[in-house]
Amino acid sequence: MCGRYAASRDPDDLVEEFEVELVPGQLPPPSWNVAPTDEVSAVLVRRPRDGGGPAQRLLRPVRWGLVPSWARDAKGGARLINARAETVAQKPAFRAAFAARRCLLPADGYFEWYATETGGRQPYYISRPDGAPLAMAGLYELWRDPAGGPEAPLVWSATVITTTATDELGHIHDRSPVLLERADWARWLDPGAGADPGLTGLLVPPGPGVLRAWPVDAAVGNVRNNRPELVEPLVHDAATLF
């Protein structure tokens, strides 16, 4: 998966779609060109800090680009926007989060760049044919700047888990975000599941027909561009759609 996606849905719609119980903090504004280190919305389950009461499903802002709790600074987070499904349970940067801090990252769709025969790179937008939101499997972390001491603010950050693209869109890019279906959300988000080996069985490529792609304006390559037109097809010729 390349480092761009669209997330423009109204927070109220996300609350309903993902059955969220609490929204702590101001959520990011709509974006049609989410880039690394941007703030994004994440769905996660947390127990109350005092240990009392049941765990709650939250929708909260996080920074895209995971910062491990042991990191000396937050700069490396920009390189950890994706985690490979094949190694996410073992890699030092992700294994602690995989065991206890799994999340969903809602998206309208995501962008990939296709290498053309002429040597250029054509961006494609990939989403569900019915327009339903994507629930990308992710991990989140909490980091506090060691230079700031115990009073330093917590930085919430997240990464998107990717896997091999094996469907009809695999020729555009060989990786795809892991998309979880509603039936698997509760299991994935459950912080009590620990590093259940069965969780890796959820990290599979999207099935045939789940996604559709179309070419979009190259303007999406500039992070300063952020408007709804970025996800619209360049042409309406069915031959250009996958």
Give the gist of this structure.
This protein has 242 residues and is mainly beta.
Q: How would you characterize the overall build of this protein?
A:
It comes from Motilibacter peucedani. This is Abasic site processing protein. One of its GO terms (molecular function) is lyase activity. Belongs to the SOS response-associated peptidase family. The chain is built from three helices and twelve strands. It is mainly β and 242 residues long. The chain has a single domain, classed as Alpha-Beta Complex (hypothetical protein yedk fold), CATH 3.90.1680. The strands form two sheets. Strands 3, 4, 5, 6, 9, 10 and 11 form a seven-stranded mixed sheet that branches. The chain has a five-stranded antiparallel sheet with strand order 2-1-7-8-12, with no helix packed on it.
